[in-house]
Design a protein that fits this description.
Pfam family, one: LRR_8
Keywords: Cell membrane, Glycoprotein, Leucine-rich repeat, Membrane, Receptor, Repeat, Signal, Transferase, Transmembrane, Transmembrane helix
InterPro entries: Leu-rich_rpt, Leu-rich_rpt_typical-subtyp, LRR_dom_sf, LRR_N_plant-typ, StomDev_PlantInt_Reg
Number of helices: 6
GO molecular function: protein serine/threonine kinase activity; transmembrane receptor protein tyrosine kinase activity
CATH architecture of one domain: Alpha-Beta Horseshoe
Number of strands: 48
CATH class of one domain: Alpha Beta
Largest sheet: 23 strands, mixed
GO biological process, one term: response to other organism
Helix content: under 10%
């Protein structure tokens, strides 16, 4: 890191010097030179003196000067620094207060660097400053915003570690302020009264902080405000109908808060509103009529609330609606055919509601539909549903889990989903075989048929699905040998695929990102390449050809009836993070070459018939004794491990004990390791309707 940073600084310095040699450009003011030299002294890697060898700072890269006056002898032009643009230069160190000496500065951009420490108060006294961008650094401390910068138009200090309560005093003097971005910091307390004085404000971003309480009414006096983002705070109380006064509002995001009560029926005056997101709050009651008749909204996200009543949209009025997320609420009734009149609809999430009946026949008219989740909505008749949905020719993502209980998987070879990239029909208790029509889904990237009652063998045509990189057939009644063709899946061998994420920016699962202190949405393309065949009745060997699957991250074959030796070739699966071969009938030794799997963080061969010495070195010293228990004669470095009592449990049926429960992603059993030394904190929740629950029965998984 230090070498790379030094190289970057050296390159920057070289640019400065190269531009200064033989230059006839006006030289910078001596006061400005001293201010910049002081700034350079605050940078790390000892480069400050090196920069200062050039006396004409106006020739430095990132510095812009403007002529101010002629010197007395008219031989030189004295220029003043008006802009310092050093964004994304990998600079480290502190922001020196000497920059306050640039009293003609209009633009200061130090964003996307590695500056630390506090922000000098002196910088907040530059009266001619118009743009201040310090975003995406590691600055900390409190920032007094009761300051006097009358010319300021753009303020962005997002993505830092600033803390304390907020003061809106800046709005008393900065009447031209158009953008305020304080998001992704550690501000606490209430959003103060005073922002209403920023009469020119167009964009206000306060998301991903720790603000509490309700919203001050003067926010709704900002007649020019077009973008209001308050997501991921702890704001509470009823949402005031006053937001209906924001006549220029185009985007409003208040998701991941604690707002409660009914959504105000105040959308009729928002003639420019295009996006409204209020997901993950505590809103109740029906949808307001002014919202379901909006002619301007194209994205509406209300998932993970307690909204109720029928889903009733006036699609003849909502002609621009393209994305609708109502997942994880308490809506009831049937899925209305009237939704099919929303001809522009491309993303629809109705998952986890109290709906019933069948997929309406009129859904076949949704020609723009690309992403559909109807999981856990008590749907019936899977055959009819697939016949209807196959006519949505642009459909790329289809999630139907926890429906169609105990029905038969359709085998109709006429079904065609040629553009499908993600298909999840998990946790339905479906019987029958793996359907042959899946062989025509040649663009499939992710397939989950887990937690059903599917029987028969695994088809060999899976090997022809060139883009498939996530396959979960676990917890079924599949039998026979693992087809060798699975080891020929190109995405497991090369992963040289250009994967276009079909999920339209909507979450499959939610992960807490510590550095951003907010919830990040992780899409299909971020899933680790995985093959999960666990909890079936598969027999035969683990093929040596598995070693060709060099890009596979997760291989789970536990709780089958596999036999034979553990192939030495598994050590060639160089990206493997999880390897679970437990509860089979494997014999022989654990190949010592497995210590070469440097990314392996989860490993188990428990309850087999293995013997010999447990390999040492590599990751093996991190694996618990439970990873090896239940093997006769398997020995560690000092002694042989005792054979554990046989743990009751069947081969090929899902586990009912808590120990067998898995993490889930949209109903997908999912476990994966991480690179050593890098801790990944995964919070699986139901903050969007894409996530599916487990219950305590065999057919449904427990809630997480």
């Amino acid at each position: 890191m230090a070498i790379r940073d030094t190289a970057a600084f050296t390159f920057l310095v070289s640019c400065f010097l190269a531009q200064s040699v033989g230059s006839l450009s006006p030289i910078c003011n001596s006061n400005d030179l001293r201010a910049l030299q002081g700034f350079l002294e605050g940078l790390e890697s000892g480069i400050g003196d090196f920069f200062s060898s050039s006396s004409d700072c106006c020739s430095w890269e990132g510095v812009t000067c403007e002529a101010s006056a002629l010197a007395a002898n008219h031989s030189n032009i004295s220029s003043r620094v008006v802009s310092l643009e050093l964004g994304n230069r990998r600079l480290q160190g502190v922001v020196s207060k000497s920059l306050a000496g640039l009293d003609q500065l209009r633009t200061l951009n130090l964003s996307r660097n590695f500056f630390k420490g506090s922000l000098p108060v002196e910088l907040l006294c530059l009266e001619k400053l118009e743009v201040l961008d310090l975003s995406s650094n590691d600055l900390s401390g409190s920032v007094p915003l009761d300051i006097h910068i009358p010319s300021l138009r753009y303020l962005d200090i997002s993505g830092n570690l600033f803390y304390g309560s907020l003061d809106a005093g800046i709005c008393k003097t900065a009447k031209q302020l158009q953008v305020i971005n304080l998001s992704i910091n550690k501000y606490t307390g209430r959003i103060p009264v005073g922002f209403g004085n920023c009469s020119s404000l167009e964009h206000l971003f306060l998301g991903s902080n720790f603000f509490t309480g309700n919203l001050p009414e003067d926010l709704f006096q900002l007649s020019k405000l077009s973008h209001l983002d308050l997501r991921d705070n702890k704001l509470s109380g009823a949402l005031s109908s006053g937001f209906g006064n924001l006549s220029n509002l185009a985007k409003m995001v208040i998701s991941i808060n604690e707002f409660s009560g009914n959504l105000p029926d105040a959308f009729q005056n928002l003639g420019n509103l295009q996006q409204f997101s209020a997901s993950s709050n505590k809103f109740v009651g029906p949808l307001p009529a002014s919202l379901t008749n909006s002619s301007t909204i194209f994205q509406l996200q209300l998932g993970n609330n307690s909204l109720s009543g029928p889903i009733d949209f006036n699609c003849s009025a909502m002609v621009r609606l393209t994305s609708l997320d109502l997942g994880s609420n308490q809506f009831n009734g049937t899925i209305l055919e009237s939704l099919s009149s929303c001809q522009q609809l491309s993303v629809l999430n109705l998952a986890r509601n109290n709906l019933q009946g069948q997929v309406p026949n009129q859904f076949s008219k949704l020609g723009s539909l690309s992403h559909l989740s109807l999981s856990n909505t008590s749907l019936q008749n899977i055959s009819a549903a697939l016949v209807v949905l196959q006519q949505c020719k642009k459909l790329t993502t289809l999630i139907l889990s926890i429906n169609f209980q105990a029905e038969v998987m359709p085998l109709d070879s006429n079904l065609q989903f040629r553009n499908l990239k993600a298909l999840v029909i998990a946790n339905c208790g479906l019987t029958g075989l793996i359907p042959p029509w899946l062989s025509g889904c040649t663009n499939l990237q992710l397939l989950d048929l887990s937690w059903n009652h599917l029987s028969g063998t695994i088809p060999v045509w899976f090997g022809n699905l060139k883009t498939l990189f996530y396959l979960d057939l676990s917890d079924n009644f599949l039998s026979g040998e693992i087809p060798k063709d699975l080891t020929k899946l190109e995405s497991f061998i090369y992963r040289n695929l250009s994967l276009e994420d079909p999920s339209q920016g909507l979450a499959f699962f939610i992960k807490r990102n510590i550095s951003a202190r907010g919830l990040q949405y992780n899409q299909i393309s971020s899933f680790p390449p995985s093959l999960d065949l666990s909890n079936n009745m598969l027999v035969g060997p683990i093929w040596p050809e598995f070693g060709n699957m060099k890009t596979l991250h997760v291989l789970n074959l536990k709780k089958n009836n596999l036999s034979g030796y553990i192939p030495v070739s598994l050590s060639e699966m160089t990206n493997l993070e999880t390897l679970d071969l437990s509860y089979n009938n494997l014999w022989g030794t654990i190949p010592p070459s497995l210590v070469k799997l440097s990314f392996l963080s989860k490993f188990s061969v428990a309850h087999n018939q293995l013997s010999g010495t447990i390999p040492s070195g590599g990751q093996f010293h991190t694996f618990p004794e439970s990873s090896f228990e239940g093997n006769r004669g398997l020995c560690g470095l000092l002694s042989c491990l005792p054979e554990s009592p046989e743990v009751p449990g069947r081969r090929g049926t899902p586990i009912e004990s808590p120990e067998g429960a898995k993490e889930s992603i949209i109903g997908l059993p999912f476990g994966f390791g991480a690179v050593v030394g890098f801790v990944v904190v995964v919070t699986i929740s139901f903050m969007s309707g894409w996530l599916l629950p487990k219950t305590e029965t065999r057919n449904c998984r427990r809630n997480l």
